[in-house]
Amino acid sequence: MAQTAQFPADAVRPALAVDIVALTVRSRRLSVLLVRRLLEPFRGRLALPGGFALPGESPRQAAIRELAEEAGVAPPGHLEQLRTYGPEDRDPRGPVVSVAHLLLAPAWGDLASGGDAAAAAWVDVAAARGLAFDHDRILADGLERARAKLEYSALALAFIPAEFTIAQLRAVYEAVWGAALDARNFSRKILGSGIIQPAGLAGPGRPGRPARLFRVAPGLDPASAALNPPIIRPA
Amino acid sequence: MAQTAQFPADAVRPALAVDIVALTVRSRRLSVLLVRRLLEPFRGRLALPGGFALPGESPRQAAIRELAEEAGVAPPGHLEQLRTYGPEDRDPRGPVVSVAHLLLAPAWGDLASGGDAAAAAWVDVAAARGLAFDHDRILADGLERARAKLEYSALALAFIPAEFTIAQLRAVYEAVWGAALDARNFSRKILGSGIIQPAGLAGPGRPGRPARLFRVAPGLDPASAALNPPIIRPA
DNA sequence: CGATGTTACCGTCACTATGACAGTAATCAC
DNA sequence: GTGATTACTGTCATAGTGACGGTAACATCG
Q: Is residue A53 helix, strand or coil?
């Protein structure tokens, strides 16, 4: 029992990693950001973006850095911790604890190559199977989290740009839930929720009556704002 | 680039720990299981039960083992991962990643001493402040998770024994939320939700009309069953 | 120019869920 | 018995819900 406290000698010290489930909605379909691995293990397989944390980094900082390296930009949107996996039976190289994160963001296009992975790409979630490591399960957990959060929070707003139409917002719900929603009832609920504010009229250019534009209500944080009453996903 | 894949040389390897926010309801008050630390750092301070993971252990297994060591029993109730904290600025001995867990359970009495902590004890959450490490924050996160989960899931059932009265179940909600609920409306909602099943009549012994006993509906898992419609906490 | 198709928006209606509250039933203590 | 205590049942006005019919404003085509 030394006076200066030390770790127990037998403390487990796994490598610390992060993985990111980055979701977006492209042309009415839910997509996830994937990279192709250039190194072993699982070389050539698709995987979630991620990697090992650097000294002094928090998992959140590591997630942001990895996204910047593998996707070329400081990620927009909403980033939150998903859950933690490991350390056993995840990586043939040894014990790894991975703190998975969930990013909900508008689609961005500058997908650069970097790090130990080829250029990242958006992949339809329905086609994202057979991923490296335990990433199939992490993706499934991230999808379920996203689907559940849309019911009771304003997080659908994280998927779209600052100005948007109600149809765009509805398309987010329909893509994430994979179900059609009644446009009229959806408008009523969103407009009555107070989370959005009129922002002019959308310019013409497409057939049909021009839609009204909206933006997030001032002082409202989509990440923490509760949706009241909620919008429940259909069975 | 060796053919046999290895970890990056500069991979961070923090110690892996678990902490447990173990909540229960005792005499209509929400309580958390705390231990008094016998070793540095934070010697003498109250802390959440927890400790370092052993080789080959999952965080969940480590949480169950630590609860058994510090509280004397294999914990009943519902155990889930809460979130992960660290690795920086948590422990003066160095970087520690702690995977916090949330346990919702009926109160149990065999609180034994063990490990590097004095006997565990149930403490009213309103009095649980000034904990060691970042445990004040972990406790706050666990409380918020528990309060939110009671709205949309059947997890309140994890707090009470197999057979219970509706008043007991309502007492769980009132203790966790710190708010009074209308007994008549609560009964209507719970009975209409289909999550419980009649199980006879409570024996007399106390003043008042004897209450009906209920048990969890067959085939229903309180951890995953959705409460529909939800029971929203009052503002 | 008008006809047609497309998209967005507005309103109605029956039904359900909700909060608030009044009243009844069954026990215990005395 | 009386009163106190706890449990249970029912009512009612109002808000929220899903389903759906109709109207408004654009583009494109003949």
A: coil
Q: Report the chain A residue with the minimal C-alpha distance to residue B13.
A: A15
Tokens 């942001």 label which residue?
A: A64
pLDDT, one tens digit per residue, over B142-152 is: 999 999 999 98
Dist. CA B123–CA A110, nearest whole Å:
52
Q: Read off the pTM.
A: 0.90
Give the residue from A117, A123, A122 showing the smallest Cα distance to A38. A117
Chain B contact for A8 (CB, 8 A cutoff): yes
- In this prediction, residue A2 carries a pLDDT of 39
CA dist list (Å): B17 to A97, A160, B58: 11, 38, 10
Superfamily of the domain at A15-150: Nucleoside Triphosphate Pyrophosphohydrolase (3.90.79.10)
Segments making up each domain of chain A, as ranges: 15-150, 153-216
Query: In sequence order, what are the beta bridge partners of A17?
Result: A52, A98
Under the banding of pLDDT at 50, 70 and 90, the label for residue B75 is confident
Q: What is the pLDDT of residues B43-72, one digit of tens each?
A: 889 999 999 999 999 999 999 999 998 877
Distance from CA of A200 to the nearest CA of B (A): 34
Q: Which CATH class is domain B153-216?
A: mainly alpha
